[in-house]
Design brief:
This protein is mainly α and 326 residues long. 83% of the residues lie in helices and 0% in strands.
């Protein structure tokens, strides 16, 4: 029992330092380029683990309660699907797809079409926010992504980037369905009370997986920054811009939601699970698209730490009656 408690304690420690762990992960990924190429084949494995863990932690009772009053959940899901696609679609229309590298166009299209990042609920928990709405929204938009995402990618990328929509749909169905199947088996085996008791360890496991993911995703980024600094700065401006616009637009437009829920929906609007589509596309991803995907991880890893004071202030502004209602 003591031997088993050691890794559980280590994972719990990682979970308690989640925001710092996210920021440190991407810095270590850049600092360890010699391991990035070796770790890159593990990317699909880490994404599959994120998918399975999110489904594993889903509280069916809370989700059923949201479904009985679906207006808020439906609004959040529609916003999380439509807002990023419209923002990126408008930007591509203004800039002109033909003026950009097709790999960068595909990267932008994947960002606009992907569901919210799987770590959004984990970030809500790290901030001390009640995570039911963002968990249910991430789950439902991820389930819908095999149908919705290929259509949005094709629309956003345009004719300049030909895609096999049917093949992408099938791969996403297998990927997400497999994660749901693994989570279902684990839920039956462990039981919900035991899963809840493992919260700290699961938080730490998520941080650990993000470290492995960061090392793998940073493959080639350091070399690209030295060889093409303008391209790297342009992409970083794009991904941080989408994050900022998503957060600001959500905060202004979804004022009927309580502050913490509005903040997390805005966070999910800018932080997209591009890895899900990159893993599904496989060899169809060009070096430029992979570079875009890698640089899009910077806001995902850094914002949980950078926004922690803003989140703390929002959490303090929630009146006790609203906290009770949740």
């Amino acid at each position: 029992m003591r031997a088993a408690a050691i890794p559980a304690s280590a994972l719990a420690w990682l979970g308690r330092h989640g925001t710092q762990g996210f920021a440190l992960s991407i810095l270590l990924g850049l600092a360890l380029p010699q391991f990035s190429a070796a770790a890159r084949p593990v990317l699909p494995v880490t994404i599959f683990c994120f998918t399975a863990v999110v489904f594993l932690r889903l509280d069916l009772g809370v989700t059923a309660g949201l479904l009985r009053r679906p207006a808020k959940l439906l609004a959040a899901c529609l916003w999380l699907i439509a807002a990023p696609a419209l923002v990126i679609g408008a930007a591509l229309g203004l800039a002109g797809r033909e003026s950009l590298d097709p790999g960068i166009v595909l990267g932008l299209a994947i960002m606009g079409a992907a569901p919210p990042i799987m770590s959004s609920p984990a970030v809500a928990i790290l901030y001390g926010f009640e995570p039911s709405l963002i968990i249910a929204s991430v789950i439902l938009t991820t389930i819908a992504s095999p149908i919705v995402s290929p259509v949005l990618v094709e629309w956003l990328a345009g004719a300049a980037v030909p895609l096999d929509r049917a093949a992408l749909m099938l791969r996403l169905l297998v990927f997400i369905g497999g994660g749901m199947a693994v989570a279902s088996v684990l839920r039956l085996w462990l039981g919900l009370p035991r899963i809840r008791a493992m919260k700290a360890s699961l938080d730490g496991f998520g941080v650990l997986m993000y470290f492995v993911f960061a090392v793998a995703a940073m493959d080639g980024v350091t070399a690209a920054a030295l060889a093409q600094p303008r391209l790297v700065l342009f992409v970083l401006a794009c991904v941080f811009g989408v994050s900022a616009i998503g957060l600001a637009a959500t905060w202004l437009c979804l004022r009927l939601l309580p502050g913490p829920e509005r903040f997390m929906v805005g966070y999910g609007s800018g932080q997209r699970n591009m890895g899900l589509l990159v893993a599904a596309l496989g060899a169809g991803v060009s070096p430029a698209t992979f570079l875009f995907f890698a640089l899009a991880q910077f806001p995902i890893y850094l914002l949980p730490w950078l926004l922690r004071r803003v989140a703390a202030r929002i959490g303090q502004e929630v009146p006790p009656s609203a906290a009770d209602d949740r």
